[in-house]
Amino acid sequence: MPIVKYPRATEPLWHEWDWKAQKCGLRHTVYAVNGDQYTGEWLDNLKHGKGTQVWKRTGAIYSGDWKFGKRDGYGSYSIPDPVTKEYKKVYTGWWKNDQKCGYGATFYPGGERYEGEWSGGLRSGWGRMYYRDGSIYEGQWLADRPDGQGMLRLPNENRYEGGWKDGKKHGPGKFFYLDTGQLFEGIWAADVPKCGILIDFGRDEAPAPTQYPIPKV
Fold first, then answer.
1. The domain that contains 81 carries what CATH number?
2. Which residues are in coiled coils (predicted)?
3. Which of 195, 142, 145 shows the shortest CA–CA distance to 173?
4. Of these four, 40, 54, 156, 159, which has the most CB atoms within 10 Å of its CB?
């Protein structure tokens, strides 16, 4: 009795190639068409877990947590110095949906620094900002500007404590002139004091007190 051989059904080659190309779990460096490279964990062809991304165009590096292809969790972002080519940390903290979100620290050019809360990539919540001139603002932020209650300390130790809106002094507040030993307490509107009272405050300890004390009413 003759033996009939039936040809085995073969899968198209692209099925095998596609299966091998699926990225899931820990992988070595994977290069994108534009030259960007990623080393780390994957899930269903998306960066997911721990990993490091290097952008070819800017040379920037992100190392930290990923979720479904986006920076999400804790991680740090650094860029190379244009002169020395050494990497300088720009942001270290929490991310959500590829944006700064939660508590983190940002380092700006010129030595300025912000430590505090973020939302949607903007400073929002409580935070402390160190400015280039030596001033320090500590308080509430909204949409990248001081907004709410906060304190601004100037390089000469004078300080303002009170309300803020859109990055300007706004509402009830106190300005301590510690260099002259005076205190102004009043109402501000868009950085301008509208009304209030000025009294002596620590005049005896002030380094440069006014010539005459303010008489009490």
1. 2.20.110
2. none
3. 195
4. 40
pTM: 0.82
Place of tokens 């005049």: 203
In the chain, alpha helices (H): 13-21
**Total number of residues shown for the chain:** 217
Nearest CA among 82, 101, 81, 138 for reference residue 91:
101
C-beta separation of 42 from 23 below 8 A: yes
Residues 6+ apart with CB under 8 A from 12: none
Pairing state between β 25-31 and 37-43: antiparallel
Domain tally for the chain? 1
- Residue 181 · residue 160 · CB < 8 Å: no
Lowest mean pLDDT among 17-21, 26-30, 36-40, 183-187: 17-21
Residue 183 belongs to a domain: no
Domain assignment present for residue 175? The answer is no
pLDDT tens digit string along 157-183? 999 999 999 999 999 999 999 888 999
Residue 84 resides in a domain:
yes
**Phi then psi for 15, rounded to 5 degrees?**
-65, -45
